[in-house]
Write a structure and sequence with these properties.
Helices cover about 40% and strands about 20% of the residues. It is α/β, with parallel strands linked by helices and about 300 residues long.
Length: about 300
């Protein structure tokens, strides 16, 4: 057991067989990870650029700057850029940004949100990142920062190496540390299973352990975040709940749906309703150059 703990090959294989990462949970629910946000693009865009969304983005950008990342005149690859939640602030700070996004509706919004950068235009690339030939694309060690925030392209060590190969200075990856917390789920799961919902650790543990075993220099930050999610109808809330149950391998049959629907009707009398979503999230900044502890001058 001790030998296995320090054997990166064992951890790489275990992660590959994990089967409960974000991308796999989406596929289990019949959702293609590459287009998972197609129907939510407009709402996600609004949440990204409202006052609260801009504050969230600024906190991440400021943390990166505090750790020695610079944007002015630097090249950035934003993988899973969505509608530009981070692409826009990177460009505002003077970075040369290449934004990669797989969802066509998100790409359209991304184009609209970055059209203002005329002198230093954002380069937008669409497709499936896993299928990109990094050498052929000219992306080998091409970017000062490769930025991947809450994107299912990170699903095993091979995918991490694919990302690392694009960077020359820094790689930033953020992922959930534990399964998502949801106020409606906390109410419904005990009614279905008879037990309270217990968040589980996620594949972030594989990422951190393999970075350590493979000799990378990196910094981590784990935070607890929460946001309000609003549904226009109770039916939307029910669909969200059933998808969530399937994602987490919890009972999602007709009985579960009936229990969830009855609970929503009894406790959420208005068609429009709000729930709280959140959890623990990890941010990892990998240093490929200048690997000593950063200290502000």
């Amino acid at each position: 057991m001790t030998k296995d703990f320090f054997d990166p090959k064992v951890w790489q294989q275990e992660w590959k067989q994990y089967g409960d990462g974000a991308a796999e949970r989406m596929r289990r629910s019949g959702i293609d990870p590459a287009t998972a946000f197609n129907n939510k693009a407009q709402k996600f865009n609004e949440q990204s650029f409202n006052e609260e969304g801009r504050r969230r983005s600024a906190r991440i950008v400021n943390w990166l700057v505090s750790r020695g990342v610079r944007f002015e005149g630097e090249s950035v690859l934003d993988i899973g850029a969505a509608s530009g939640v981070f692409t826009v602030p990177f460009a505002e700070q003077g970075a040369y940004v290449t934004a990669f996004e797989s969802s066509p509706p998100q790409v359209e919004l991304l184009q609209q949100n970055t059209a203002k950068f005329v002198e230093n235009p954002v380069q937008i690339v669409s497709g499936e990142f896993e299928k990109i030939d990094i050498q052929q694309k000219g992306w080998q060690n091409a970017f000062d920062l490769v930025f991947v925030s809450m994107c299912p392209v990170v699903h095993d060590w091979d995918s991490v190496e694919h990302i690392l190969s694009c960077a020359r200075k820094f790689v930033y990856i953020s992922m959930p540390v534990s399964s998502a917390e949801n106020s409606l789920i906390n109410e419904v799961v005990p009614l279905i299973t008879g037990e309270p919902f217990q968040p589980k650790m996620t594949e972030m543990a594989y990422l951190l352990h393999l970075l350590a075993l493979k000799g990378y220099a990196y910094e981590t930050l784990v935070t607890r975040e929460q946001k309000i999610t609003e549904f226009d109808t109770r039916q939307q809330a029910l669909e969200h709940t059933m998808t969530w149950l399937r994602h987490h391998k919890l009972p999602s049959d007709e009985r579960s749906q009936s229990i969830a629907w009855r609970h929503i009707q009894e406790h959420y009398p208005s068609e429009k309703l709000q729930i709280y979503e959140g959890g623990r999230f990890g941010k990892v900044l990998i240093r490929l150059q200048d690997q000593h502890m950063y200290a502000e001058e």
